[in-house]
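Pair request: fold both.
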Amino acid sequence: MPFLRRNGSAQHLLGCREGHTLPRRFHLDVALGHLEEVERHGRSCRHRLHTYRTEYVRGVHRIALHCDAHAWMATWTREVTVAEAASIVRAYVDAALSGNGPG
């Protein structure tokens, strides 16, 4: 299980730092987890996606998404800018601090 999906992980990291933000090395993991939760590729498919970063160029992460349930749509990509990832992290931290998030 990835560290950020463990109960209390975000609170632990936030307790170690000032400013209510996560260390930059966790930003991509939070963005990947967010995409796994919200990205959909069909109205009826509820399988959890698998995500990984394929490349990083000039402030943009290219993310590959994959659903094991659909051979016809094996892998597709999304682009997430550094600013978008930071926004996703802020929402993740706010949810964790309010007790509504996974961390």
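--- second member of the pair ---
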Amino acid sequence: MIISQSQNDEQTRVTKHEAGHYIVNRAFGYVPTTISLTYNKVTYGYSGGCEVTYYTIYQKRRDLVDFCKKRCIILLSGSVAGALNSATNKVDIIKAWKDFNSETGLNDKIKYDVIMNFYINFRFGYIKKHKIYNPIKYFNEEFMKEAVKMVEENLKFINGIGNRLLSEINRQLPTNGDVVLDYTDFNKMPSITKEFGKGFPI
């Protein structure tokens, strides 16, 4: 399969996108079971997914608020990782927001908007007056800062997963059209298991 520069750039973006979701999940203590990538031979584009089942015990309202915050950061982390500048190892925040609000980040954005509304209602729903004038704008910026911080702090792990996905794309996609890595693949990566422990789905 001959890969053009634009296709190569898209491969890098989508692999980092899914790697970002994976690593930020792990940093929060959640264990994704698979990362999947699909190549569309008609549009020459890629779609991906990072599958996670969240098992969380909510003893207090605060627990639910914290979970909603983490999920928002996780959903942002894909576009954030995809906007990493390879020359500076820094995130282009404008590019991250543009990606998140485009068709590329549509699935993440739909979930994010729902969970953000839950977050604000669970956090402020019982308070008639609070000091934040525009809570959605305020928390969008706060969660983006958190996502950027976590992605940049875990850059080597995101690059490690991204490179593994790229190698699997080059090996599998010419014949299969799909790439699927599961927790057993990630557990074979020493740097991942050393930092986050072995991940096994419940």
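Observation on the second member. The chain is about 60% helix and 10% strand.
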